[in-house]
Amino acid sequence: MPISPQAPNLAPAADHAATAAQPVWPALAAPHAAPQDHWIEQLGRRRNDDFAWLKYIPETGTRSMDQLPEPLGSLLQAERQYAQQMLAPLAASAQGFYDAMAAHVCSTELVPPAALQGWAYSSRPGAGGQRVFVRSHSDGRVQTLVDEAVQSQGQVYYRATDHQASPDDRYYAWAEDLIGNDRHRICVLDTHTGQTQVPVEGDAFGYGGLTFSPSSQDLFWIWRDAQSRPSRLYRSALQGGQPVLVHEESDPALFMRVARTAANGFVVLSLFGPDTSEVRLIAAGQEHAAPRVLRPRERGIRYEVNEWDGSLVALTNAGGAADRQILRLDPAQLQPQHTLAPHRLGVPITMMQPFASTLVRLQRVDGLPQLVLLQRDGTETTIGFDEPAYSLELLPGQHWDASHVRIKHQTPAQPPRWLDIRLADGQITDVGRETWSGVDPANYRIERLQARADDGQWVPLTVLSRKDIDASQPQPLLLTGYGAYGIAHEASFSLPALAWADAGYRYAIAHVRGGSEKGHGWYQGGCREHKRNSLTDFIACAQHLQRLGYSTPQQTVAHGISAGGLLVCGAMNMRPGQWAGVIAQVPFVDMLNTMSDAGHPLVPLLRPDWGDPLSDPAAYDYIAALSPYENVREAAYPPLLCTAGLKDDRVPYWEPAKLIANVRRRSTSTAPALLLLNPDSGHQESDQQESVLGQAARLWAFAQHCALAGKPPAV
C-alpha cells in the first residue's frame, strides 16, 4: 500500500554514503519568511516578535489553505513544496518503513469477561487499521456496533473517541471528529432498531465529554465554546427534544469531564485544572435536578470521586498527600470518614476503579505500575509484573458486580494482552491478546536504565532493540520524551517503534521530569521555574546512552510530540551538536507568546504548569530564557523536521513555522529545517492507517538519513 497522498509524494531514493560526516540533502533554496518588526511591551520588558505575521486566525470557521491571506498563503504553500522536494530522495526508505509496518497484520482473540451475564463490550482491528466495536452476549450472540472504516468513508479526516454503552445496554454512543479541530459530533446507536442518530451535530467535546444517565433516558454531554474550551454541560433526551443546559463554567482555567460512578448511583461532573478540582453530583432518580457541589474548588486541592461499599470515595491530594490517598466519605455530610489507601510519598496512586466486592487501584513503584486489590475488610493484594518496562490499563465500562477486573498489559515488544484478575485473591488468567504477524517478542531486548541528571537525580530510561544487533557497535538511536503536565510516558507497544528497532537501531524513551513516573514531585520538578530540568534530563539521557556505547551524537535523533516538541527543541538550543537530527511533531515552541495570549483555549488552564508571563515578571523572565523560538542562537544546528496541522487549535501551525524561520535565519550549518504541514489535520493525524503509518514512515526515513551519515563504518 503506498504512503498516504496527504503527505509529500516522494520520488525514488538516492544512494548516500554511510561513512559521510553529514547527510547529503538536495541543494535547494528554502522559502524565506521575511522578518517584520512587531515590538511587544510587557511587564516592563520589550521584545521583537518579528515572525508574528505568520499567525492567522480566521474570523469564523476553520482554517484552510485557500483562505490564507497573502503573503502567508504563498509562504506555507512554498513550505509544503520545499519539504516535498527535500524529502523526495528518501522515498524508498519511507516506503520501506511503511511496508514493514503495514505488513504486520493484527488478529485479536478475546473471550468475554468471566462469570458475567449479559453483554460484554470490546473492539478489534478492522479494515485499514481502524477499529470495529462489538459486543458479545453470555448466550453466544455477537453484534457489531461501530465499524470505523465504514464511518470514515468519504472523510479526509476521521478520529473517534469515548465509545460507551448505556446502563440498560440499549444504546451505544461515541464522539467523532470529521474536521481535525477536536470539535466532535456525537452519534448514538439504538441497538433495538439498528438506527443511528446524531443528537449533537458539532462543537461537542470528546475525551471524557459524554455519558448516559443512570436511567438510560438521557445523554449528558459537554459543549466547546468559540475558544474551543469545554464550558457547558448539556442533557439531551434520547427520545428527542432540545438540549437542556445543566451547568455553565465561567472560569477558563478549568476543564470539564462527565462520567457515571461505577455503581451507577451518580452522574459526576468534574471541573479541574492542574492544581484545582470541584465535583458536582447528579443522583440517579434525580437526573433532571441541579448538580450538587461535593467540595467547593480550592487552589492546591485536587480530588475525584466514585462510589464503593455504600458510600462515596475520593482519590485526593488533600491533607498534604502529594501522591494522593483514597478516603471514604460520610454518606450524609460527604466529609472524609476514614482512610482506605494511605498516602505514600513516591508511590503515586494514578487511578481507582470500584467493584461491588473490591476497590481496585493503580499505583506506581519506581516508575512502574502495580495493581492493588483492596477488600472490604482492609486486606490488600498487590499484582506486579517482572518485565523491565511495561504499561497497565484498567479497561473502562466494567460491570460493577464482576468477579474479575480486566486489565490490558503491554510492553514495547509485547503487543497488548488482556488479563482477568480475580478480585477475591488476585489470580491471573490470560483471556486474550493482539497477535501481529511477523512479531515475536522473544526477538527483542527491553532495558530499564537510569541516567544521572545534572543535579544528581536518576532519570529512568526505557530502551528497545533487537537481540541480534551488534552490541559492540554504536547504532542509530531515536530518543523520545514528553515531560509535561504530570503525564507519564508509558512503555507501550508501538508499531513505529518496532519498525525502527527492526531496522537494526535502538529506540529509547527518556522519562524526564515534568511527567509523573516517579510521583508528584517528579512532575513539579519539571514545570514552571523548574522546567529547565526536563531539558537537561533529556540531554543527560542521550549522553548516558552514548557513554554506554549504544550510540554517538552523530547517530542520535531527538523526537518529541506537542509539549515533547518543546523538550527536544529546547534541548537542541542548549546542545545543537548533541543531535544528528531533531523531529518535533506539532511542537509547542512559541512558549512566551502563547502563554501571553489570554485568548488561547489552553492558556488559562495551563498557567500552573508554565507560569503567567502576563502578570508575573519572574515567570516572564524564566519562560523567555527557555522558550525554543526565542532562544535560537547562532550555532551549527542539526537537520530539523517539524510537523504541523493547519486546523490545530492546541498548538497552531505558526508555532513550528516561526521556529523554522528563526532556525534558518540563525543557524551556521547547511542542515535543512523543514515544515511538514498537513492542511487537513489538527493536533492529531487522522486515525486511518495510511495517515498514522505514513507519517511515521516519513519521520523515520528522515531520522535514518540523519543518523546513518554519522554511523561508523563496519569493521
From TrEMBL:
<dbReference type="InterPro" id="IPR051543">
    <property type="entry name" value="Serine_Peptidase_S9A"/>
</dbReference>
<keyword id="KW-0720">Serine protease</keyword>
<dbReference type="InterPro" id="IPR029058">
    <property type="entry name" value="AB_hydrolase_fold"/>
</dbReference>
<protein>
    <submittedName>
        <fullName>Prolyl oligopeptidase family serine peptidase</fullName>
    </submittedName>
</protein>
<dbReference type="InterPro" id="IPR001375">
    <property type="entry name" value="Peptidase_S9_cat"/>
</dbReference>
<dbReference type="InterPro" id="IPR002470">
    <property type="entry name" value="Peptidase_S9A"/>
</dbReference>
<keyword id="KW-0378">Hydrolase</keyword>
<dbReference type="InterPro" id="IPR023302">
    <property type="entry name" value="Pept_S9A_N"/>
</dbReference>
<dbReference type="Pfam" id="PF00326">
    <property type="entry name" value="Peptidase_S9"/>
</dbReference>
<keyword id="KW-0645">Protease</keyword>
<feature type="domain" description="Peptidase S9A N-terminal">
    <location>
        <begin position="41"/>
        <end position="428"/>
    </location>
</feature>
<feature type="domain" description="Peptidase S9 prolyl oligopeptidase catalytic">
    <location>
        <begin position="492"/>
        <end position="707"/>
    </location>
</feature>
<dbReference type="Pfam" id="PF02897">
    <property type="entry name" value="Peptidase_S9_N"/>
</dbReference>
